[in-house]
Design goal:
By secondary structure, this protein is an alpha+beta fold. It contains 14 helices and 9 strands. Strand 5 and strand 6 form a beta hairpin.
């Protein structure tokens, strides 16, 4: 069997207590808890569950017959004709993302039996996969053939990001089709590349993979057309901004930052320094939630507990709110939407009608 990831498991003998009096636990002189290496691929967690559910024999058969730490010739041939794959990555905290990658047949380049190279085309600008790879190189690829053999290939390994100019420096060692990609311009030119060092490669069996018929469909690579991308297919614009940014937990974060900025401001800080912090925070949260379209009925009159608020103060509060939302990376269109709602509260907050009666 090939050695993939070395899995360390407890040695039963290492759990035996030392002979004689020994030392108290955790004190110098404690026996070292030995680990024994395993030649099995996979994680300690999967091995533990195999033991728990009595599937070790089946798993070991699969490991020995199907799992390699390199790409076999048929695997390389399979990859060279595929048009899409799923890419699994995680950031340094373990937060995961799974994204598809598409291209013409052969867009995943095979560089020998230990390395793959695939292009990163212009996307939505989020860089979820590349962002994760920049923090954590571990990557999982699932390459599926729906059109001919209805079978798949898993490739797990480590990835690194390569820029176009980095590859161009090795032009004499690159496949001709990679050079052709680098020579493109506009939206069809890759933004960069991902190089994958193969750690594990194994089959995704055919029994549940459907055989599909591919239909012709025009593809505008790199387009920003909302219609072409079906960008509002799930009609998220109809969902209140309050829910889209995360609901109450998001409001808590926004209120904390907003309140701190208000207190630090020389112009408006005095309107927010009342003793009852819990009540003040609830007012501000209700105010923001109302502005974001949340389930709060709130006029804004109770936002401040002191008299004397003038138009210049209202403008100052609005500016601080906008600064808060920008710092929280809320989109410009969404901020404009919120500020329009805030403006509708101007008269109520300033209580202009009542003030006119006092004169």
């Amino acid at each position: 069997m090939n050695l993939h990831r070395v899995s360390l498991v407890d040695s039963p003998a290492s759990n035996q207590p030392p002979s004689g009096g020994g030392h108290p636990p955790g004190q110098p002189g404690d026996p070292v808890k030995l680990k024994t290496p395993s030649l099995l691929p996979g994680s300690d967690g999967e091995h533990a569950l195999q033991a728990k559910y009595a599937s070790e024999d089946r798993a070991n058969t699969f490991y020995s017959r199907q799992v390699l730490n390199f790409l076999a010739p048929r695997m390389r041939e399979f990859i060279s004709r595929q048009e899409f794959m799923f890419v699994g990555t995680a950031d340094r905290h373990g937060e995961c993302d799974c994204s598809p990658r598409f291209g013409e047949p052969g867009f995943i380049r095979v560089l020998g039996n230990k390395h793959l190279l695939y292009p990163e085309y212009r996307g939505n600008g989020v860089f979820a996969s590349l962002g994760n790879i920049s923090e954590n190189p571990h990557i999982a690829l699932l390459i599926l053939d729906f059109y001919r053999d209805s079978v798949g290939l898993h490739v797990n390994g480590k990835a690194r990001i390569a820029q176009n100019d980095e590859l161009e420096a090795f032009a004499d060692k690159l496949p001709k089709d990679v050079l052709a990609e680098l020579a493109k311009d506009g939206k069809r030119r890759p933004n960069g590349w991902v190089m994958v060092e193969v750690g594990e490669a194994y089959i995704q069996c055919s029994k549940h993979i459907p055989l599909l018929k591919k239909l012709e469909r025009p593809i505008d690579w790199g387009t920003d057309s909302v219609a072409a991308k079906k960008g509002d297919y799930f009609q998220l614009k109809d969902i209140p901004l309050y829910d889209r940014i995360g609901g109450d937990p998001a409001m808590d974060i926004a209120v904390d930052l907003f309140h701190r900025k208000l207190l630090e401001d020389d112009l408006v800080g005095r309107f927010f320094d009342d003793v009852d912090m819990a009540a003040r925070r609830l007012r501000q949260k209700s105010f923001l939630a109302m502005a974001f379209g949340g389930p709060y009925q709130y006029s804004g009159v109770e936002l401040v507990s002191k008299m004397g608020l003038e138009a210049r103060h209202f403008d100052g509060i609005s500016a601080i709110l906008k600064e808060t939302l920008e710092e929280l990376k809320i989109g410009a269109a969404e901020i404009e939407e919120v500020m329009q709602v805030i403006e509708t509260t101007r008269e109520a907050i300033l209580n202009l009608l009542d003030r006119q009666c006092w004169r």
